[in-house]
Design a protein that fits this description.
By secondary structure, the protein is mostly helical. The chain is built from 4 helices and 2 strands, in the order αββααα. Strands 1-2 form a two-stranded antiparallel ribbon.
């Protein structure tokens, strides 16, 4: 595997060098207010743009990782405090706490209750599309 990586790196370097040789013309970059740079090779401008893009991408990635780690630490602290509260509740007399397998999330029940309430208040035409008629 290391030989394949080395061969790919050599091929990439070969392509970068030949690209630089093929695009060695000098260019002058124009800025605002009629400012111009010194003449630089075209390949240098392109390589710098690629490098700056990679550095910007890495900076964004590092920032997102740091914020996610911060959120994780905060949630771990919250989890630890909730576990302590749960242990305190188990230790209190008369404070029965259901087992973790018996605990179900409340959100699906609330959604089902809300959807049933909204469905029962709607007229029959809107629910099924047709009204049911009683047999004669």
């Amino acid at each position: 595997m290391i030989y394949i990586k080395a061969l790919l790196l050599i091929a990439l370097l070969f392509l970068a060098i030949t690209f630089g040789i093929q695009n060695s013309e000098s260019v002058v970059l124009r800025y605002y207010f009629n400012l111009a740079s010194i003449p630089v090779p075209l390949y240098l401008v392109l390589y710098l743009a690629i490098i700056l893009g990679v550095v910007a991408g890495l900076a964004i990635d590092v920032y997102s990782r740091v914020t996610v780690k911060g959120k994780l630490k905060k949630l771990e602290k919250t989890n630890a405090s909730l576990r302590e509260d749960l242990e305190k509740m188990k230790g209190e007399p008369g404070g029965e706490v259901p087992e973790e397998s018996e605990i179900t999330p409340a959100a699906p029940e609330i959604r089902q209750t809300q959807s049933l309430a909204s469905a029962s208040s709607a007229p029959p035409d809107e629910i099924g599309g047709e009204t049911e008629s009683e047999p004669d």
